[in-house]
Automatic annotation (TrEMBL):
Record domain PTS EIIB type-1: where: 5-87
Gene3D superfamilies per record: Glucose permease domain IIB (3.30.1360.60)
Native organism: Listeria aquatica FSL S10-1188
Catalytic residues as annotated in Swiss-Prot or TrEMBL: C27 (phosphocysteine intermediate)
The protein's name in its UniProt record: PTS system trehalose(Maltose)-specific transporter subunits IIBC
Amino acid sequence: MAKYADDAKALYELVGGKENISSVTHCATRMRFVLQDPDQADIEKIEALASVKGTFTQAGQFQVIIGNDVQEFYNEFVSISGIEGVNKEEAKTDAKKNMSLLQRMLAALAEIFTPLIPAIVVGGLILGFRNVIGDIKMLEEGTKTIAQVYPFWNGTYNFLWLIGEAIFHFLPVGITWSIAKKMGTTQILGIVLGITLVSPQLLNAYAVATTKAADIPFWDFGFAHIPMIGYQAQVIPAMLAGFMLAYLEIGLRKIVPNAVSMIVTPFFSLVPTVLAAHLILGPIGWKIGDVIANVVYSGLTSSLSWLFAALFGFLYAPLVVTGLHHMTNAIDLQLMSQFHGTNLWPMIALSNIAQGSAVLAIIFLHKGNEKEEQVSIPATISCYLGVTEPAMFGINLKYLYPFVAAMIGSGIAAVISVSSGVMANSIGVGGIPGILSIKPQYYLIFAFCMLIAIVVPFMLTVLFRKYNILNKVDQAPIRTFGKREFRTDSKKASNL
């Protein structure tokens, strides 16, 4: 019999059988189900299966952690169940029926920004490197930068701006393209719309504040003047314009005859949207973005910044669980546009590190639990590289007390970070490598914050387990430094 046949058959029955499975697919390590009735899944028995490392529900999907052999397990499951598998995009679409309106909105936001993150991360690293070689005076007794002394590094400094500008100044092009892709509309129209927001013939967004009103160029329609202002690095104007273009195209497709659709639909989708973008949507979106950025920035620089930081650092991990954390991408990008950096993103990186450190403590406490280590060890590495879901859903939320310990450690580290004025050039890798995206003058203090995010959650997790704080599930032997303790229902025995 095949290696996973028994467990695949058992999982098929425990999730409710064919009648309860709307669709099934898999990713790198997990089976992903969309269930008609999620409550029918017997989670306790599923997690008891030898092949299963844990379960969690996210974005309307019931996910079962299998590990690196998930492809083999999936093949067995499909063979036994007779259910035709679907691709990830089809599963995501199917999963939306299990999501609330807010969850669907947040999922849409995530789908817009996720394709852009690799470029934004690269841009952040490039800006950080440019700061090191071009802005820090570390040579000739602190009077010159590396770029000022060495022609090669001066050329590198100037060359790298080509990439940085393409990523951040022309970000609206990526946003409008991503919206068109997500909405299933014509992607090249999304790209063209984005270009009309950042065209060189427009007054650069960064120059608007220093340009007199009388000197701002405009289109003269006789009866009206429309300012020729660009929206470089602006997020919300691009999103508003992108969605208008997509919904116009979708609506026109329904009413325009196929014979003329190729001509009529693009024209009457794009032209009105570009006009509205510069006349209505752009100014409104710019104002909304400014308000959001100012509120967040004020909160992080006011006399109560420590409280704002403590709350954000403490609550960011629960935001990830709910999916609300996706909104921070737009806020970070708006902060970068307005203040040339973000003091929000460093706290996100610290929260990721803290969750990984809590799992590291669980590895220490449960040393020898080979089945759990197949989840906990990769989850720790993943956290330290910026991806927290495997750690939170596979380990920390399961036991709860490490999750809370990580929240506390993250909150403490966030307070120190904000109180010290730490700023990042951009969104970057969200774990330990994230220091590369921090502005160089804050490297040392951010390194200290990372140390806090490693040590505090680890120690709190060990203490919470030792004294059974917030622990209702974990009854495994307690491993401590220099001794091993064991709990029973009536007493505690020690092995010295």
